[in-house]
C-alpha cells in the first residue's frame, strides 16, 4: 500500500447523522491514520477537513477538474429529492446537484451506511423529504456498505481493496461486498448454540438474560440480517450488539427502520 500513489478522495455528506464518519475514524485494521496520511489524499470531507466555506468548496471543485475520472467518491447520507432538493443544500446547491456532478467524474463510488445505500430512517414512512439512496440517482455502479453505521474495519477494508487492486470487491445482488455481507449475523453468532438448543431470553432481567441465552424471543433480527458484526466485531474487535446483551435490529438491511417493532417484549 505504501508504494501506491495517494489517489484523491472526496467524501460528501448529505442527510445523515455522521455516524459513518464516527465509525470510520475508529478503524484499526489498518489504523485510520495510516489510511488518511499515507494511502489516500482526502481532499474534501465536511467533518474532518480544516478548510471551510469557499476554500473547502474550491478544494472539492479543483479535485473534480484536475482528477476527472480518477478520484474516489465516498457518500454519507441519503439524498432528498423532494421540494426540488431544498431539504439538503450545501453551499447553496442541492445534495442531488452536488452528487450528480461529483459522481460523473468519479472512478469509483462508495455509499457509506444505510442512508446512502437504502435511505435509512430519513426514508421512514411516509418519507417526507423523498430521501433516496444514491444508486438510484447516478448512472454508474455503487459499492454499498450498509449498516447504521457500517463497521469501521469493513469501511477501511473496502477502501484498501480499491487501492490495492484498482477495482472494487466482489458484490452481491444488492451491491454489497460479499466478503462482509455474505453471511447472516445468526450464522456467526456465538449465542447460536442456545438458539439451536431452544434456550432463550424471555425477559430482559430473567435467568436466560443473565446466562447469555439467545435473544430471538426479544426480537433479535440476526436470522434475517447479513453483516460481519459477529466476525469482525466493533471498537477494535471488542464486542457487538448481541454480545452487549441487545438483539440485532438489522441495521445493515434495507427497510429495517420500518420493520417494527424492534422489541418483542
Ligand atoms: Fe441468532 Fe440473535 Fe440468537 Fe444470535 S442472539 S443466535 S443472532 S437469534
Ligand atoms: Fe447492526 Fe445487527 Fe450488527 S443491529 S451492528 S447488523 S448486530
TrEMBL record:
Record's GO cellular component terms: [Ni-Fe] hydrogenase complex; ferredoxin hydrogenase complex; plasma membrane
The species this protein was found in: Mesoterricola sediminis
GO MF assignments: 3 iron, 4 sulfur cluster binding; 4 iron, 4 sulfur cluster binding; electron transfer activity; ferredoxin hydrogenase activity; metal ion binding
Annotated NADH:ubiquinone oxidoreductase-like 20kDa subunit domain residues: 17-162
Coiled coil: none
UniProt main location, coarse: membrane
Cofactor(s) required, per the database record: [4Fe-4S] cluster
UniProt similarity note: Belongs to the [NiFe]/[NiFeSe] hydrogenase small subunit family.
Binding site residues for [4Fe-4S] cluster 1: 17, 20, 115, 148
Keywords in alphabetical order: 3Fe-4S, 4Fe-4S, Cell membrane, Iron, Iron-sulfur, Membrane, Metal-binding, Oxidoreductase, Signal
Residue ranges constituting the Cytochrome-c3 hydrogenase C-terminal domain according to the UniProt record: 181-263
Protein residues bound to [3Fe-4S] cluster: 229, 248, 251
Subcellular localization, as worded in the UniProt entry: Cell membrane
Subunit note: Heterodimer of a large and a small subunit.
Any one biological process term the GO annotation gives: anaerobic respiration
Protein name per UniProt: Ni-Fe hydrogenase small subunit
Binding site for [4Fe-4S] cluster 2: 186, 189, 214, 220
Amino acid at each position: 500500500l505504501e508504494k501506491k500513489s495517494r489517489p484523491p478522495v472526496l467524501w460528501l455528506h448529505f442527510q445523515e447523522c455522521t455516524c459513518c464518519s464516527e465509525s470510520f475514524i475508529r478503524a484499526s485494521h489498518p489504523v485510520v491514520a495510516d489510511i488518511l496520511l499515507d494511502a489516500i489524499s482526502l481532499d474534501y470531507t465536511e467533518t474532518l477537513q480544516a478548510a471551510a466555506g469557499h476554500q473547502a468548496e474550491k478544494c472539492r471543485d479543483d479535485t473534480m477538474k484536475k482528477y476527472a475520472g480518477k478520484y474516489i467518491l465516498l457518500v454519507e447520507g441519503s439524498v432528498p429529492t423532494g421540494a426540488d432538493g431544498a431539504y439538503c443544500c450545501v453551499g447553496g446547491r442541492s445534495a442531488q446537484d452536488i452528487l450528480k456532478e461529483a459522481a460523473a467524474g468519479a472512478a469509483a463510488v462508495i455509499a457509506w451506511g444505510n442512508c446512502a445505500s437504502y435511505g435509512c430512517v430519513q426514508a421512514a414512512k411516509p418519507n417526507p423529504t423523498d430521501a433516496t439512496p444514491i444508486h438510484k440517482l447516478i448512472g454508474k455502479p455503487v459499492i454499498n456498505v450498509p449498516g447504521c453505521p457500517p463497521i469501521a474495519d469493513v469501511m477501511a477494508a473496502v477502501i484498501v481493496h480499491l487501492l490495492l487492486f484498482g477495482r472494487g470487491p466482489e458484490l452481491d445482488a444488492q451491491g454489497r461486498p460479499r466478503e462482509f455481507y455474505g453471511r447472516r449475523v445468526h450464522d456467526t453468532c456465538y449465542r447460536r448454540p442456545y438458539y439451536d438448543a431452544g434456550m432463550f431470553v424471555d425477559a430482559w432481567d430473567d435467568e436466560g438474560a443473565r446466562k447469555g441465552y439467545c435473544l430471538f424471543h426479544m426480537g433479535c433480527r440476526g436470522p434475517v440480517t447479513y453483516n460481519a458484526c459477529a466476525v469482525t466485531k466493533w471498537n477494535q474487535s471488542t464486542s457487538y450488539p448481541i454480545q452487549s446483551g441487545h438483539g440485532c435490529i438489522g441495521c445493515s438491511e434495507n427497510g429495517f427502520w420500518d420493520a417494527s417493532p424492534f422489541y418483542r417484549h
